[in-house]
Batch of 2 targets.
Target 1
Amino acid sequence: MVEQPATDLGTSPDDVQFRFRDDEMVDHATVTVDACCDQTNATAVRIEPGDDTRVLLPFLDRLALVEVNFPSFADGRGYSAARILREAGYTGELRAVGDVLIDQLSHMRRCGFDSFAPDKPLDEEDAARAFATWENVYQHAFDTHGGKRHTIIEKRHG
Amino acid sequence: MYQYDQYDQAMVDARVEEFRDQARRRLEGKLTEDQFKPLRLMNGLYLQLHAYMLRVAIPYGTLNSRQMTVLGDIADKYDRGYGHFTTRQNIQYNWIKLEDAADILADLAKVEMHAIQTSGNCIRNISSDHFAGATHDEIIDPRPYAELMRQWSSFHPEFTYLPRKFKICVIASEKDRAAMRLHDIGIQIVKNADGEVGARFFVGGGMGRTPMVAPMIRDFVPLDQLITYAEACLRVYNRYGRRDNKYKARIKILVHELGKEEYTRQVEEEFAHLLEQGVEPPHEELARIAKHFGDPAFEDGPKTVDRSDPDFALWVDRNSHRHKHDAYVSAVISLKPVGGIPGDATGEQIRIMARLAKQYSFDELRIMHTQNVVLPHVKIADLHALWTELDAAGLGAPNMDTIEDMIACPGLDYCALANARSIPLAQRISERFDASGKTEKLGELKLKISGCINACGHHHAGHIGILGVDKKGVENYQLSLGGSEAEDVSLAKITGPGFTEDGVIEALETVTDVYLERKEGEERFLDTYRRIGMEPFKEALYG
Amino acid sequence: MKVLTGNDLKTGDVIWWTGEGWSRHVDDAVDTGEQGEQILATEEAARRVNVPYMIEATREDDGSVRPAHIKDRVRALGPTVRPDLTLKPKSPEALDWII
């Protein structure tokens, strides 16, 4: 089996500025969605905005890391990609990479991202404040799935 | 109307602090304008021709007198003494400073108001029927559903960076008074054969460069699946809406390019998946919200007015809408005085309307998408006293749904996107038609003026529409006929070559003359046009 | 002439490059010739102007500056429908200048 060369793909653990997991960081070359489907041993994949995330669903068991690329912070497709993966039961690391800025962090976290590798390092204090912006939330997302957190509406009705 | 609980209040307060922090980082240079722009837009702050413009949300067009008073105070304290009511039931202030914006949002938060998501590529203010909860012809008050959707769509983590803006409308009558079919998602609350209440979804309507009427995607969604279905519609759009071309990024393009059947298939698939995820709020929430929208304590009283004053009688005939209680009407306060700026009101006038609402309408007002204000529950016995005060304040124009009741966007006088001015045209038209007495003869005639192709003036949906264009640096105007944003929805057709400002006013005289000559019985302009077609008008205009 | 314009970051006021700084009055604008882009970049980075851009304008006989496009003339003076809110509220011919 020939490994897809990593070339420019894949962030290394050094690029990860925020992480909300206790396990070891995966240090594998990340492959494209297409390559991932062909290879039986790929354990880390990168999703681009134009990819169909659901193509990966048969392979979730063997994936330890999924990177979702945000080439521009204004392209919101990665948020759907994240929720879809988590809804399908993916429990590995879900890393937001690329044009990841302070003001997107809390929404990304809600959608299921648990690690962040921004192109440009972010101010730590600003980021801490950003993650803590919303004490409560109106609508369901990954963070409220399975009762880990309750929405405002759930709290209103016990 | 809805009252915030501690959670709602905490959300708007957190949003004010978030924006204050964002504005600070912009002023410090930690954020470039490109990075800051989407953030300030999501708090309603545009950079327009003369200054920053702030668009404050009036959820489904409903507010009380305390809130209305604050809107008037903001106009005086932070702006230049006036505000502009918009075609999405919001209010805009044109002369705002960035350094004041967070304080203004804090003032608004104190009265349960905000500017959340009134711009940006996110879900915008949810609009509704301005006569909701008062009109005789709705099956239920649609506003609790609009409120449920407001909460669902606020700071939605998945849908904050959509391909483009997203506008939702909810009505609950066969009559469409909110241009529902011209929204990204239009929802009509209906009853099925078993008498159950549900939501009919129309997706993919809109105006702008490529106007489209939203096709029906689902005939009946049970109300305890409303949010799940909406989420499915949005997710398909977020994933597959075009992002390569700003002018092809609305959901109407996606629905058009996929075809209604394929878009529906994808939504149904996502809907089935999301049902398993359990994203619907608990059904008790709708009941909790609905309790805020109960009827006020209506009293019996006279069902007719004294018509001896002809000015008063005219105002009653034109500006009242039938109420579900026979001792009441909904009264329209016109913000279209002859020669005035459509939709503008001074701080003082805004406070007067607030006081009148408290006195005559159970402390409630509505904003119409046609840029007027409604007092939804006025006792017929009080109408004369109300009208007297309105008249004294310059708010008594008896012209609802006449040619003088035109929609005009701010246009090139205010808006950076505009190609031509729309307000001076509106002023000249209303002056002329009032002076000649033609307004009266023409009856119902919905004129809509947009200063550019973005169609904020809804010109595609006007019985007569006017579009401002740039013709080699000179303002020019295209005329179109036969649009409607009611339940008989249709898109206007352009007559032919454009006109100068003087020319389009003459053209308006010409086409209305054709109507007056050719009308049969009680036909409106729109009906005559639909019966005789474009040719007679074209002939008269261009020979 | 090539003239630079933009908005003040804090207040949103329309401003014009004078050669040394930014003025609210279009008649203070200077011809930046080929230096325009560079000045824009410097000034924007220093946050002395927001969303700046270059426009064509002509220097009139009386020394005043007339932007070539009607939109920039509206920006320069104010809304034609509210003469009281323009930079020349007491001057009726100012509105003719815009159009």
Target 2
Amino acid sequence: MIANGRFLDGEDYVTTKRYIAAIDQGTTSSRCIVFDADGSIVSVAQKEHEQIFPKPGWVEHDALEIWANVQEVVEEAIEEAELKPADIAAIGITNQRETTVVWERATGKPVYNAIVWQDTRTDQLVKELSETIGREHLLERTGLPPATYFAGPKLLWLLENVEGLRDRAERGELLFGTMDTWIIWNLTGGADGGTHVTDVTNASRTMLMNLETLSWDPSLLEQLHIPAQVLPAIVSSSEVYDECVGFLGGVPVAGALGDQHAALFGQTAFNTGDIKSTYGTGSFLLLNTGSKPVPSKHGLITTVAYQIGDQPAVYALEGSIAVTGALVQWFRDRLGVISKASEIETLALSVEDNGGCYFVPAFSGLFAPYWRSDARGVIAGLTGYITKAHLARAVLEASAWQTREVVDAMVADTGIELSELKVDGGMTANNLLMQTLADALNVTVVRPMVAETTCLGAAYAAGLAVGFWPDLDSLRHNWHRAAQWTPEIDEARRAHEYHNWKKAVQRTLGWVEDDEPTS
Amino acid sequence: MPGRIQSVERAAAILNLLASGSRRLGVVELAKFLDLPKGTVHGILATLAHIGFVEQDRITGKYQLGATLLHLGNSYLDVNELRTRAINWADSLASRSREAVQIGALHDGKVLIVHHVFRPDDSVQALQVGALLPAHATALGKVLVANDPGREPDTEDWAAVTERTIVEPAVLDSEFDRILAQGWAPEIEELVVGEAAIAAPIRDDRNLVVGAIGIRGAMERLCADQDTVRAELVAFVRDAARAVSRDLGAHRW
């Protein structure tokens, strides 16, 4: 809509430009998907990038490699669809959240590798901030409990640990951004006039943004000694930020959302009480809480769901589960029981039930709602009867029960009654897992027609901004059930299984004792 | 590069055929399918049996892959893997065609439904994954049987499901030949009265058919007339089958 005036002179912009492209800059790869007006996938291109592990607990990416890959997948996806850049009405970005990069304004050269969200080097720094600024104060201002993921402390670490960086930052020579910022700046010209912005959902993961005002919090910047001139402007998730230069020359960059926020948007979870769960390596549940941020008493994060143009922001509660798909990968790569992730379903289906065994994958402690770093994984209930097939069942059930615990926390915080769970992500191809989820939650589990909701959400945000789609209702109209699973077990069985799961969880707690190294 | 060795290529072709089907194959069938003399095929099979790559059934004399080869690598495509690889394209097919999508694989002479995408009209529909359908009465099954190197329609016990189910072995055989030649299969009221379906084969990196993808829905939407399905829908189905095949590593065609 914002761009209509610019494009509608003489030709019908919407009908001549029939596609929207979305870039998903993820933790392991960058992808580009081209969508048509129905929100159907036209083409996909993907390229992985290197994971750099300089020390235990440190994870980095080469931001230049990522930018090169992004350019490559965009060209490939457009060629694969047999389109020209001129056929693209707008491009949207979704990204791995919190990953932090600082670069030279004049050259576009990063001053250090990007520090990835999983990186724990800010452990000590975050503990200090928690004491000096106060955990409650940070929670109240930013919605985030102090943790190593968030981008602000990563920026602070760079300023304090890389020679000369603070001086250069204060002189205005450097720019900071999460991956949305980095990609948009490069797409729109880079050192030659690139636009330096971040969307409000990504900004909400820095621990520097005030959740009420949706702007950088001046007192936090002062307490963290962050020079404001390195920070991007905070913009909405859906508006024309600028036009691309280069291959996509003239295409408006018109949407940006952190990956989990994009998945919520792609699921068209626009109503208060709508909830989605994305099943990847880990899993992320987001509950739309409407126009007010809801503080959590049960270990959830308060975050911005999305903001469209100059409309008020919509908020969400987020619960994260560290290990879901990763447990299947572990089963494959570390135990070697299966050779492909999808074979777990075949193996699990060869038995009727879990045979009495439960697998709690607290590999690096337990996340929401427990937040116990002293927990470690257990397989409970082992007998001589248990086979690898029972273990395969227990592996899948672990994802379902962990989801149940996060959902219970969301219900406790908001009083919202869950009617159905919208799911997406790679693991939704696993029918047995989806059935197990429905059984564990006692609600209908629904997979939408486009399982690639993350890219779709970014495409929707961009398409809305240029009038490719007129409003949220037209997006809702695109959403269709591709499959659904309804509960098949009775309440007594569900209660029994949940009780046993909770018993197994209790066995994980306190495994790491104070005098032990916590690795 | 030194010249390629023909007998190794032929041995590989035989192993690929044995890996693709759901049943054992005899010397005659293999020779016919590969267009080679029976003696040549027999010689290769004897060698492969000697090294344990194939095994001969004592009663029927037919061949299957040997245990040694099965342990070499996981060559068959797990149906859950097939679903994982096909899921995006199945979704796209459903939203283009506005019909329900099914993916099937042969299982004991029937079609096992391994993936199902609802018709995108938000009506109440039940997931059909795990259902076994008669191969000769469904578009999916006809595609799979037509592409099965070991097909022997005249020895099968095909039963009528509706009045329009093809059961006459000779008619069925020419239907399979037609499907193999045209690369897709129609189904008009052969399984359910008033319903039609269209299916096309999914190929893997050896260009062998590992499954079929298709749409199913009301005859009035899928058919141009009593005996013809709509060409535009056939194109959607074939595009989806090609896209999945490409993802599985099949050569472009």
